[in-house]
Design a protein that fits this description.
Rossmann fold, 48% helix, alpha/beta
């Protein structure tokens, strides 16, 4: 595990939890400096994605390590935490388990998929090869890059950085991360005193995710944006600026 503290030393604490097969440098790279101007950032790279030759074990083991770090270094509390995609599963677990306290849990347009063991195994067999195989030759790299640029409106630089990130990590870590995320369930109607839950809702994902957010958490603060999944992190200023403004409003509220 890697925990990197940066940004404004006297700012509110904001933990950044990256998504599937990503490190924080890639996942939050386009907004890291701007968030750091206002917040004291605690940036996390999980086992298997920390450059130390480790392997991602499972979601709960990693959650326990995050909890331990917060307890030992921040008195068991955070002003806020934001999870990108799969990183939102960690935010949900940190809130639900109540071993630490956060004032604001921010969910970055997650899918929050959950399934049984057989379905998780089957999905992993289908999806993980796609996540680990598209950088194996130059033809696949070029095709994937064009798809990322078209779908997310990524720049050349962002698409290159994203693809390089995927190619660096062990397929075993990616498989363990994807598989155990599906098996790590949230309860329903979660409500923790003095913790406010916020969702960045990318409406192009579809309304079933909106219903899911309301199923798992009681009275969440949901902000709707006309974008694809996590496009604010990859698609340039027109997506990033309004979401960053919303994050400031969440944290101030």
């Amino acid at each position: 595990m890697e925990f990197k503290e940066t940004g404004r030393q006297d700012g509110k604490t904001l933990m950044l939890l990256p998504g599937t097969a990503c490190d924080y440098q890639t996942n939050f790279g386009t907004v890291l400096n701007r968030l750091g101007e206002k917040y004291h950032l605690i940036c996390v790279n999980y086992d298997g994605f920390d450059g130390k030759g480790t392997i991602f074990p499972d979601m709960i083991t990693v959650t326990e390590k995050i909890e331990k770090y917060i307890q030992e270094n921040h008195g068991g509390r955070l002003d806020g935490a934001i999870g990108s995609s799969l990183g939102s599963s960690f935010v949900g677990q940190l809130i639900q388990r109540e071993n630490i306290h956060m004032d604001h849990g921010i969910f970055g347009s997650p899918d929050l998929d959950q399934s049984g063991k057989f379905s998780a195994w089957l999905q992993s067999k289908l999806v993980v090869p796609l996540l680990t195989g598209f950088t194996r030759n130059e033809k696949k790299k070029a095709k994937t890059k064009e798809k990322l640029k078209s779908f997310f409106e990524m720049s050349d630089e962002t698409a290159d950085r994203f693809m390089e990130c995927f190619s660096r990590f062990s397929p075993e870590s990616i498989k363990n991360e994807y598989y155990t995320d599906l098996l790590t369930w949230l309860g329903e109607d979660i409500s923790v005193e003095n913790t406010k839950v916020h969702f960045i809702y990318a409406n192009k994902m579809g309304e079933k995710y909106l219903r899911r957010y309301r199923k798992y958490f009681r009275n969440p603060d949901i902000r709707e944006f006309d974008m694809q999944h996590e496009q604010w992190l990859f698609g340039g200023e027109k997506y990033a600026v309004p979401v960053l403004k919303a994050i400031d409003e969440f944290m101030e509220g």
